[in-house]
From TrEMBL:
Record flagged with keyword Signal: yes
Transmembrane segments: none
Species of provenance: Halpernia frigidisoli
Keywords in alphabetical order: Signal
Residues in PBP domain copies: 27-260
Protein name: Phosphate transport system substrate-binding protein
PROSITE patterns documented for this protein: PROKAR_LIPOPROTEIN (PS51257)
InterPro entries (UniProt xref): PBP_domain, Phosphate_ABC_transporter
Entry-linked SUPFAM superfamilies: Periplasmic binding protein-like II
Length: 287
């Protein structure tokens, strides 16, 4: 009887230790995670991660830039905790994700794919049909920042095509594309709005000074990639950025996502020159 009693205590203690060992090693206020996003969104994600870790010094978030498709695969395979997406997943991708994790996309910003030419170009706009035609032409007059990039993926999806079905040139990286575009005066570059959207950022100002942004003409109407046109989604290449996580509990990944989608995070999105997805009314009481 005595031996049985001690055996029961041992089993209880062993079970308790195992339960403690299974406790998550992080929570919203402490721990370490890795986040991946396309280079096109690096400015806004860098600002959000810096703000979060400054507010919670016991957290560490490694932000790694990686092509959108590869980032999604890393998330699916558990190599990272959070990925940033801008396009809709294919049915196969969505099914693969939901087989492993809960589908809870967290939308946080409105961005746009922007068509640009060198500053001294005589071209002043581009039509939706022209974009379609150029991407079917062997001249490859449209330059993207890379294969598997979010900009290429989104434009292809917008046109109802696969990226492999399009004809285009490549200059790696949004910033590098802007800086090299004047060497190709007859070409049209494609970048993310976030690359140049920070209103008072020295780097963004310098880059804006090198290029001319082309309004897109569709159905006889001209649309600038302005925040108002992104807010009402009238700009033809408006896209919504969203987070995906494979985190099954309320840990650092979900804490960061919640932070980014609530008021303080949305203020950061606004300061980045992007359209906050969640807007908050300001109420001023007069006495």
């Amino acid at each position: 009887m005595k031996n049985s009693f001690f055996c029961m205590i041992f089993i209880f203690l062993a079970f308790s230790c195992n339960k403690k060992a299974e406790k998550p090693v992080d929570d919203p206020h402490r721990g370490y995670i890795k986040i991946e996003a396309d280079e096109s969104f690096s400015s806004v994600i860098q600002s959000l991660t810096e703000a979060y870790t400054n507010q919670y010094p016991s957290t560490k978030i490694d932000f790694v830039t990686k092509k959108e498709d590869l980032g999604f695969m890393d998330l699916l395979n558990g190599k990272i905790r959070v990925a940033v997406m801008s396009r809709e997943l294919s049915p196969a991708e969505r099914a693969a994700f939901e087989k492993k994790f809960e589908w809870q996309p967290a939308k946080f910003a409105g961005d746009g794919v922007v068509f640009i030419v060198p500053k001294n170009s005589e071209k002043s706009s581009i039509t939706y049909e022209e974009i379609q035609n150029e991407l079917n032409s062997e001249k490859k007059n449209i330059i993207f920042d890379g294969t598997n990039s979010s900009n290429l993926n989104f434009v292809a999806q917008n046109l109802g095509k696969k990226p492999s079905e399009l004809q285009f040139s490549v200059i790696s990286g949004n910033t590098n594309l802007i800086e090299q575009l004047n060497k190709f005066p007859d070409k049209i570059g494609v970048i993310s709005l976030n690359t140049i959207s920070r209103p008072y950022g020295a780097e963004a100002e310098k880059l804006r000074g090198l290029i001319k942004i082309l309004p897109v003409v569709k159905d006889g109407k001209t649309y600038e990639p302005s925040l108002q046109n992104i807010k009402n989604m009238s700009y033809p290449f408006t896209r919504i950025l969203y987070f995906l996580t494979n985190e099954p509990y309320y840990g650092l990944g979900n804490g960061f996502i919640r932070f980014s989608c609530t008021q303080i995070g949305q203020i950061i999105v606004d300061k980045e020159g992007l359209q906050p997805y969640n807007t908050y009314k300001r109420e001023v009481q007069m006495k």
